Amino acid sequence: MQTYTYVSKGKFELMEKPKPVLMDERDAIVKVTLASICSSDLHIKHGSVPRAVPGITVGHEMVGIVEDIGSAVTNVKPGNRVTVNVETFCGECFFCRHGYVNNCTDQNGGWALGCRIDGGQAEYVRVPFADQGLNKIPDHVTDRQALLVGDVLATGFWAARISEIKEEDTVLIIGAGPTGICTLLCVMLKNPKRIIVCEKDEGRIRFIHEHYPEILTVSPEACVDYVRANSDHGGADVVLEVAGAESTFRLAWECARPNAVVTVVALYDKAQTLPLPDMYGKNLTFKTGGVDGCNCEEILRLIAEGRLNTEPLITHTYPLNRIEEAYTLFENKMDGVIKVAIEC
Ligand SMILES: [Zn+2]
Ligand SMILES: [Zn+2]
Predict the structure, then answer these.
(1) Is the CB of residue 315 less than 8 Å from the CB of residue 338?
(2) What is the pTM for the complete model shown?
(3) Which residue in 16, 168, 242, 333 could disulfide with 180, CB within 3.0 to 4.6 Å?
(4) Do residues 228 and 176 share a domain?
(5) Which phi and psi (to 5°) does residue 156 adopt?
């Protein structure tokens, strides 16, 4: 079968590999219908994910049809349409039992698919712990509507869930890339009084205005003053930092009012400083990233009810045999791209 494979630093290549087979009684084989490209795939390509294993098939955001299941799998059966979770988790260890599935202690626990084991930018993928990692897509939800459930949408949902958002709050979201917009959609479900999105890219700002006209937007340069002027207590009650740029961590805590919650979803290339003397007395609560992707069933229900819709984020579609073009487009942010769907 065709796979898109991490060959070496800077090099991904389409190559033929044997179709995966069941290796454990809790595995499932999924025929991938749609996959997507994530910025984490680019991090692997550029060598900034040290645990990524050369030779693996990349891709960790996908939907498909269950082809085969191991003898211990009970939640799905062949023929089911499913979302695949970015995280592999056993469901039994201390962390899994508390919902902290990102820290599952199994050797494949956490982000394994498309990083340490073969992922889903391919015709088929083997999913360990299939009862945990697969969720059935409701009948009237399309593959495109469900494509982002297992990764960027799960991340946005988790970020909104842990941020203690109340209805009187002004919420600031820094970054309107795919994860930022998914975070926005999930924050909107909490009905805060005001949502401000900080983003430097004009195309993304236009996208926000076009699809979510009630959302306020601001550039990073104007952000501190704007948030002070447009909040009730001298800063945002909740800040979600989803940009991960050079100065956005500082911006996040600067825009927060005293006693705010600052949730850091972003993955940084470099260490950030926490200048405690500067923020002394602000009494902030920081929550830091690494999605616990264990709410996919609820997310699918919200999609089925029409309360979450990420389809507008899928701006481009390519067949698997043209995935290189899709990467070029995504990596260079060409043609207003937000997310690319790959038909496998
Ligand atoms: Zn991802
Ligand atoms: Zn576990």
Answers:
(1) yes
(2) 0.96
(3) 242
(4) yes
(5) -60, -40
Q: Is 207 helix (H, G, I), strand (E, B) or coil?
A: helix
pLDDT tens-digit readout, 169-192 = 999 999 999 999 999 999 999 999
> Where does the pLDDT of residue 269 fall: very low under 50, low under 70, confident under 90, or very high at 90 and above?
confident
Structure tokens at 148: 């982002």
**Same domain (yes/no): 86, 33:** yes
Quick one: 185 and 277 in the same domain?
A: yes
Coil, strand, or helix at residue 72? coil
On whether both 137 and 192 belong to a single domain, the answer is no
Is the alpha carbon torsion for 152, 224, 196, 211 positive or negative?
negative
Q: Is 143 a residue whose pLDDT tops 90?
A: yes
Can you give the pLDDT at residue 48?
A: 85
> Do residues 240 and 187 touch, judged by C-beta distance below 8 A?
yes
Ligand with the closest atom to the CA of 106: 2
Portion of the chain with pLDDT greater than 70, in percent: 100
CA of 292 to the centre of ligand 2 (A): 11
**How far apart are the CA of 104 and the centre of ligand 2, in A?**
4
Of 246, 269, 288, which residue is a domain's last? 288
Same domain, 217 and 335: no
Domain co-membership, 321 together with 226: no
Residues 21 and 97 in one domain: yes
Ligand 1 geometric centre to CA of 234 (Å): 34
Q: Residue 51 corresponds to which amino acid?
A: R
Cα of 102 vs centre of ligand 2, distance in Å, is 8
Q: What is the CATH number of the domain that holds 35?
A: 3.90.180.10
Residue that is last in its domain, among 288, 314, 329? 288
State how far the Cα of 165 lies from the Cα of 172, in Å rounded to an integer.
11
Q: Which ligand is nearest to the CA of 104?
A: 2
- 268 and 165 belong to one structural domain: yes
**Six-digit token string for 334:** 């060409």
Q: Identify the band that residue 268 occupies on the pLDDT scale cut at 50, 70 and 90.
A: confident
